[in-house]
Write a structure and sequence with these properties.
Layout: E1 11-16, H1 21-36, E2 45-50, H2 56-70, H3 80-86, E3 88-92, H4 101-107, E4 113-118, H5 125-134, E5 143-146, H6 154-165, E6 173-175, H7 183-194, E7 207-215, H8 224-228, H9 231-249, H10 258-271, E8 280-285, H11 297-300, E9 311-316, E10 328-333, E11 340-347, E12 365-371, E13 375-383, E14 392-400, H12 401-405, H13 415-425, H14 434-454, E15 459-461, H15 469-476
Parallel strand pairs: 1-2, 1-4, 2-3, 4-5, 5-6, 7-10, 8-15
Antiparallel strand pairs: 7-11, 8-9, 9-10, 11-12, 12-13, 13-14
The structure holds NADP nicotinamide-adenine-dinucleotide phosphate.
NADP nicotinamide-adenine-dinucleotide phosphate binds next to α1.
Organism: Litorivita pollutaquae
InterPro entries: G6P_DH, G6P_DH_AS, G6P_DH_C, G6P_DH_NAD-bd, NAD(P)-bd_dom_sf
Protein name: Glucose-6-phosphate 1-dehydrogenase
């Protein structure tokens, strides 16, 4: 099976913040891999822009260094790196001042797609949008790409949307959530809407519950200052886990087009019930005993009495015809036992067991693994082989992408590769619309306001565990349990 690579139109991509961490770790390696795959037309150009003084050759060396450090993840022909470097140039620009803007404007090609990646802090989004217009660089077909965090509450998200809307139409704004660019996440839509098998069962009548877990083994590390102002709710639930929830729970869109898909996702967010305090468990990791490399959360942040959560588990309810009565359990946290991202759709028991109680309880579970080892697994019940009567066991029908695609698995683009190429193609399906982001904050805000007003403190949990005890109880009291987070 050979993956098809369709070259995108010629483009000028300006990366504001082209010397920053995100550019080095994600954006530039992703562009390089697409270049290697032959997806960039010869006229494609990438222009780094930031305040640091550098010339084109300086930037090319900077990018070579970044690619060395963060890996290309792809075997390339000799000379490909030199070819990629020829697409690169650099302009010293101050987002808040006048420096560099005329030079940048003069550099832009006429008649090609223009994309501007705002890989800078959100406080600069307005300045950049305004100057792109002031210097005549943005035309009706230009696109801007903005990164998370998109606001820290509804008011700030609205203000950001308003600022961007002064200069760009919604159809020009690409709000990235890299979870949406993952191969498995898109496969989730293919599986749901491309097969007859699943959709008839995809509702409260047949689904007992759904679990979404995003577990990390790392702590907040050097990001303590940023993270402590955010916490797991703002950093993970409001965006990444909410997007996964939407794709699982949405109605089939009439067609696979950006607004049809995003309309359906928006309806899910609007149908979410408020969550009572007893359905939320927040936690903070403790130090790993005897390992000075793994201090506790409070040692990573400036405020020794911080009540910010590094873990959260919640039980959500969606009030609509499809999902009434099926709980969605979400959990995410740092310094947990393993690094796992997965969605598990747990189907109900058969209405009657013809095999009697000794056959035990068996359930079909569809697991969508985002990491590690992206793929899907469907647990089915079969007879245990051999003599001795009808004993049942659960076996997985496993579809690992790496195994299914063989050597072609290397060719599957990662999230940033796909999303940046979608920007150039002008396809917004995998990007969040402004109203979606606002609706997610409108649901999130009262929950955060609630625990802040009550002064709730997060429950400490052991480093390397599955999170606080109460998170386990959240499911136990419903007669269910979390899937194991494997080390
Ligand atoms: P960073 O390492 O601090 O980089 C910021 C970039 O902005 C640098 O290139 C900096 O270069 C440039 N910059 C700062 N002030 C500027 C100004 N006045 N004019 C022009 N350029 C300016 O930040 P980052 O980690 O790359 O993050 C960038 C954005 O992505 C942020 O919104 C962040 O929240 C988001 N994000 C980052 C990650 C990640 O993994 N790093 C993940 C998700 C989202 P100079 O100092 O040379 O100007």
């Amino acid at each position: 099976m050979v993956s098809r690579v369709i070259p995108v139109d010629e483009f000028d991509l300006v990366i504001f913040g082209g010397t920053g961490d995100l550019a080095r770790r994600k954006i530039l390696p992703a562009l390089f891999r697409r270049f290697c795959a032959g997806q960039m037309e010869p006229g494609a150009r990438i222009i780094g822009a930031a305040r640091s003084e550098m010339d084109d050759d300086g930037y090319r060396n900077f990018v070579r260094e970044a690619l060395r450090e963060f890996g290309t993840g792809r075997s390339c022909e000799e000379g490909t790196l030199d070819g990629f470097c020829e697409t690169l140039s650099y302009v010293t620009v101050d987002a808040r001042g006048t420096q560099g803007w005329k030079e940048l404007a003069a550099k832009m090609k006429i008649g090609v797609v223009r994309a501007f990646y705002f890989s800078v802090g959100p406080s600069l989004f307005g300045d950049l949008a305004e100057r792109l217009h002031q210097y005549g660089m943005a035309d009706a077909d230009s696109r801007i790409v903005v990164e998370k965090p998109f606001g820290r509450d509804l008011a700030t998200a609205r203000a950001l949307n308003h600022t961007l809307a002064l200069h760009f139409d919604e159809g020009q704004i690409y709000r990235i959530d890299h979870y949406l660019g993952k191969e498995t996440v898109q496969n989730l839509m293919a599986v749901r809407f491309g097969n007859m098998l699943f959709e008839p069962l995809w509702n409260a009548q047949y689904v007992d519950h759904i679990q979404i877990t995003v577990a990390e083994t790392v702590g907040v590390g050097g990001r303590g200052e940023y993270y402590d102002r955010s916490g797991a709710m703002r950093d993970m639930i409001q965006n990444h886990l909410m997007q996964l929830l939407c794709l699982i729970a949405m109605e089939p869109p009439a067609k696979f087009d950006p607004d049809a898909v995003r309309d359906e996702k928006l309806k899910v967010i609007r149908a979410l019930d408020p969550v009572p305090p007893e359905d939320i468990v927040r936690g903070q990791y403790l130090a790993e005993p005897d390992d000075p490399e793994k201090p506790g959360y409070l040692e990573h942040v400036d405020n020794p009495r911080s009540k910010t959560e590094s873990f959260i588990a919640m039980r959500l309810a969606i009030s609509n015809w499809r999902w009434k009565g099926t709980p969605f359990y979400l959990r995410t946290g740092k310094r947990l036992r393993g690094r796992t991202s997965e969605i598990a759709v747990v189907f109900k028991d058969t209405p009657h067991s013809i095999f009697g109680p000794e056959a035990g309880r068996h359930r079909n579970i569809l697991t969508i693994r985002l990491q590690p080892n992206e793929g899907m697994e469907l647990g089915v019940t079969i007879k245990e082989p051999g003599p001795g009567g009808m004993r049942l066991i659960d076996v997985p029908l496993d579809m690992s992408f790496a195994e299914a695609l063989g050597p072609d698995a290397e060719e599957v683009p990662d999230a940033y590769e796909r999303l940046i190429m979608d920007v150039v193609r002008g396809n917004q399906t995998l990007f969040m619309r402004g109203d979606e982001v606002e609706a997610a904050w409108a649901w999130t805000d009262p929950l955060i306001d609630g625990w802040e007003a009550r002064g709730d403190a997060p429950e400490p949990y052991e480093s390397g565990s599955s999170g606080p005890e109460d998170a386990l109880m959240l499911m136990h009291r419903d007669g269910r349990r979390w899937r194991e987070i494997r080390a």
